[in-house]
Amino acid sequence: VTETVAGLTRVDAGGALVTPGLVDPHTHVVYGGNRAAEMKLKQQGVPYLDILAGGGGILSTVRATRAASDEELFAAAEVRLLEMARYGTTTVEIKSGYGLSTAEELRILRVIAELDARLPISIVGTFMGAHAVPAEFRGDADAYAETVVCEMIPAVARQGIARFCDVFCERGVFTVEQSRRILEAASDHGLARKIHADEIAVSGDEESGAGLAAEVGATSADHLRATSDQGLKELAANGVSPVLLPATSFCLGDQRYARARVMIDEYDLPVALATDDNPGTSPTESLQLVMALATLNLKMSPEEILAGITVNAARAISRERDAGTLELGKRGDLVIWRAYDLDMLSYRLGVNQASMVVAAGVIIAN
Ligand code: NIG
Ligand code: FE
Question: Does the pTM exceed 0.90?
Fold first, then answer.
């Protein structure tokens, strides 16, 4: 029930659960085309990195993204973001990374800035030129990494168009050494650091993506499906936020989930959760699906899950000052749920339980 009193809208939630607006701290929602056609290969068991090495995967999305106009990229991302909002998300991090040239990466970052300016949800932009080695540099990841360092990062920093720099540190993509060079350059140019770390395998024999995240003082290390205890210990010692993406594990289909219980119980890490929304490994806008997967496969409690998509998620993208809790002085972002307690919220599967979503004090979904 809503009524207007002295120009203000008063909402009677009828005893329903109210939480802060949800924060999705890891997405790739600006891209052209889709990868539905790859599902057949996945069903046959072709590994993700093999599809990429064959010129598909991320590289197929790069071709479709380069072919799309600015307006098409904006419109497709807008649809995804408004769907997120209907599911309760009011703050979103978005990475570039389907352009893979200086001009194309800057174009995607401009679309991200435009989405932030025009949509009611709050958006944080991340530069991810090191998402894959583009066809033009095939077989020469070193030369491409050099372009990221010498050309792309300075251009991104000059335009002040991204807050973070992220790298896909993975066997067959970027090595720990290349990732280190890229993240150090990012730091020199005033960009905060993030890493796609240990998603498929631990990156080197001795070194891991998590270890590198700790070494370069990254704000977050994301995925962490293959991270050792040593890597987790280093994250904890260096204040790096872990961001877990259980919908990606689900879609990769290998039953390998990050060890959330160890992260929380042994290392007291502030575990955050995200959709990873992207056309290849996690085509979903729903943080509510992520909540259910975190319940079933990460064995997190309803309270830990709520923290993972609010306060810990805000911390993972350095937005704790305006999002993540219901507190005076923050943006007025909140969700009224079709549920009466957290237990109910995190166990339901595949349906939208948000009944009203408020962003910056304005009702954006009802
Ligand atoms: O987080 N690992 C790299 N990036 C995405 C996948 C992107 C894609 O496949 O298009 C991820 O899984
Ligand atoms: Fe990702």
Answer: yes
